[in-house]
Protein 1
Amino acid sequence: MRTYYDTEWGMPVRDEQGLFERICLEGFQAGLSWSTILRKRPAFRLAFSNFDPPAVADFTDDDVARLMDDRTIVRNRPKILACIGNAKATLALRSEGGLSSFVWGYQPDNTPSPRTIADLATTSAESTALAKALRKKGFAFVGPTTMHALMEATGIIDTHLLGSHRRGSSGVWPS
């Protein structure tokens, strides 16, 4: 977890495949711990064709059955189906500028400035709006809390505590 936090969490993710992977993994995380998902991430990448949206969009019922039998990932049919559906929705967004442009379009004008853990929010107006907009585009498992976590993880907002050695490290927001 420390390596993930120190090197990856909060760093900008602007490519379609990277954002698609994060949306899927955040959806799989719902109701579970992030450490569980992070530990299983290599298996998820293998099972979901490295989160290549066109490949995942082509998954069939046989692929769903294969995934439901895969003990190395989270075997939850609604979450598996959501990932496949989200791949199709990602492809549809290409005609509107793409997933990255869409998601980053919800970046707020200002980022939170938490001084303590108690100051950290789990949702925001932007994450609520992003969740609603993604659902309208056909995405699933993209609630406001999940999208807030996505925004934190991908650098759209910087919720590192003021004074943290990581605050501002994304280059998106000043420290």
Protein 2
Amino acid sequence: MRIIAGTARSLPLKTIDGLDTRPTTDRIKETLFNMIQQDVPDCYFLDLFAGSGQIGLEAVSRGAAKAFFIENAKNAAACIQDNIRFTKFEDACTLLQTDVISGLRTLEGKYRFDLIFMDPPYKKELEKEVLTFLSHSSLVKPSAKIIVEAALETDFSYAEELGYTVLKEKCYKTNKHVFLQKEK
């Protein structure tokens, strides 16, 4: 796993041992960033269920002004911290080691985000819990995009009831990215 483009291009990143995380492959990460490349420069990026931190770090490498990472697992948070140090992005990155909802509450009223990415454990409906919280949160700028990495069979039919528009769904072999935006 590595940074694909930008100021930290080709730098290898640490990953977490074991099966507790599913790092996004370089190919899928590249596809994702090709779809959001216009939104990344100078943005505030929020990486939820951050794992190794590779998505937020890729955003900073490509010009994001600031990236925040929320990760509860101690070993994953340590991995993120190591990756932030290794890429020398300490000034642009903030890690919160806590559960996602507590982390969002901590950030509420202090920051507003242009891009929010989440890759929660599959089949636990954690994305629904986060989207419910964000539906009435000041963290989401009016033009912000929320991107959820999820299992192919994950249902997002409830999104409209929460006040979101599904902008796009990009399916891969085993998972998908769902792009949402709050309705204005």
Protein 3
Amino acid sequence: MLSLVVLISGGGSNLRALLEAAQDAEFPARVVAVGADRDAEGFDHAEEFGIPTFSAALSNFESRDAWGEALLEQIQVWKPDLVVLSGFMKLLPPAVVSALSPNLINTHPAYLPEFPGAHGVRDAIAAGVTQSGASVIVVDNGVDSGPIISQERVAVLPGDTEHTLHDRIKIVERELLVQAVLDIANGHINLKELSLA
């Protein structure tokens, strides 16, 4: 059974998808804790499913590295097999990435390497493209630059706003994330091999 710590910053819709998938006794992964960089709304999902939570706000620390150390300590208490960044909007310090990688994955609302960064959906709309997408990647020290685990295209429709497009991308993102966790748990995806490729 693959144990997961999920890190969030907001509403936690991807987290909820994982929690719901894990309700199935056949699903080979369980969320053991949920962390955040603030008092995130998504903690409500964790509470509903009886999952412990923790938070570490960057503003409470004198440096990003000190914050990273504190966050890593809280993650490691749970000894997770996999850490999932799910709408986690802070860049992890290199020491944290090194400690957790390659068992550290992230979702991104674009078809990488297109539109990396915090505003992938807005950037796709601004660029006037006809399609964007969703990706699941292994986290490295770049910005959305790690090895791609899976991705899928999502059409940009005439009249789409950042909000309407993001809503459709989130549906695909959730499906990709749940499938990626399933494939990692079943050994169909080897994160170490993927990272060395």
